[in-house]
Specification:
Elements (H helix, E strand, L loop, with lengths): L3 H9 L3 H4 L3 E3 L2 H11 L6 E5 L2 H7 L11 H12 L5 E4 L21 H10 L6 E3 L4 H8 L1 H11 L5 E5 L3 H8 L4 E4 L9 H11 L5 E5 L3 H11 L5 E3 L4 H5 L6 H10 L11 H18 L3
Parallel strand pairs: 1-4, 2-3, 2-8, 5-6, 5-7, 7-8
Helix pairs in contact: 3-7, 5-11, 7-8, 7-13
Pfam families: GT-D
InterPro entries: GT-D
């Protein structure tokens, strides 16, 4: 069900500014559908995400989960510069207004102009239609059945490697059996990359799917594996594994993380208190989301 604000926008506002914008990003649904379509191909396919963390690094600033590292910045930039039809880059700039817009879940960054300046400074080609980096959190919140189907068809049945700080048990609830589990630090993962990278390098060619869950370091992982010509799929799913872990690491999880749990095949049990609390969250979110 679409919101009142969505219908108001469709009737009285137009995104004419985006029509001539040099940087364009797909809608949530278009990007999700395109990725799902491309997952059927036999050739390797990488889906990498650029968000606020990556741009904070490119601005030479510290992030909440890692300190600025010049080498990391170079690898992030290198990932952004790859131009190949099988290397899908998602970018958090110029989101078209769609049915998924919701405060705390999915909205334009207030400092978008600074991101654009970063791209201009690096002289990155901008006449590209980028994928949307928020597809997984939005589908988890608003269309969990569609995301569950995606996971069943393209993730849970595949041999895979998971690279992250989330426990293997929790990651397997979301992604299915993990053949190679690479543990990394919760914070400042890039500072120790040379310690855990050999395990990735040794086994990456033995799986069908690689899931980096390492924040901005995921782009360094993707860049290295791409240059190694690894013949596999790679997808950065972002923070949805935190929702499964019931770790309130993002505003969207605090607001609607309980709804995202519907992407699991085995739905978790809630206590009566949790059910009432979740119901209250849903009612409050529904009415607030009609307008902001």
């Amino acid at each position: 069900m679409k919101t009142l604000k969505y219908y108001y926008h469709q009737l009285f506002k137009t995104d004419t500014v985006l029509e001539d914008a040099p940087i364009k990003t797909k809608t949530i649904q278009d990007s999700f559908d395109y990725l799902e379509q491309r997952m059927h191909q036999k050739e390797r396919l990488f889906f990498v995400r650029f968000g606020d963390g990556e741009f904070i690094t490119l601005l030479k600033k510290d992030h909440r989960n890692y300190i600025y590292n010049e080498a990391l910045a170079k690898e992030i930039e290198g990932s952004f510069r790859i131009k190949d039809d099988n290397y899908l880059i998602s970018c958090p700039i110029n989101y078209p207004y769609d049915e998924f817009h919701a405060k705390g879940i999915y909205k334009q960054f207030s400092w978008q102009s600074e991101m654009i300046e970063v791209m201009d400074t690096m002289d990155i080609k901008t006449n590209v239609l980028y994928e949307n980096p928020c597809i997984f959190q939005c589908m988890a919140v608003f269309k969990p059945q569609s995301l569950r189907r995606f996971l069943n068809d393209h993730v849970r049945s595949k041999s895979k490697m998971f690279i992250g700080s989330t426990s293997k048990e929790v990651a397997e609830k979301l992604y299915g059996p993990i053949d190679y589990y690479v543990k990394i630090p919760v914070k400042n993962a890039y500072e120790t990359i040379e310690e855990w990278w050999p395990e990735i390098e040794k086994n990456a060619d033995k799986v069908e799917l690689i899931i980096p869950s390492a924040g901005s370091t995921s782009n360094a992982i993707a860049l290295r594996l791409w240059h190694m010509d690894i013949d596999a799929k790679l997808i950065d799913f972002g923070s949805i594994v935190d929702a499964v872990d019931r770790k309130v690491s993002r505003t969207w999880i605090r607001l609607k993380g309980h709804t995202a749990l519907k992407i699991l095949n085995d739905s978790p049990a809630f206590t009566l208190k949790e059910k009432l609390n979740n119901f209250g969250k849903d009612v409050k979110f529904f009415f607030r989301n009609q307008f902001i």
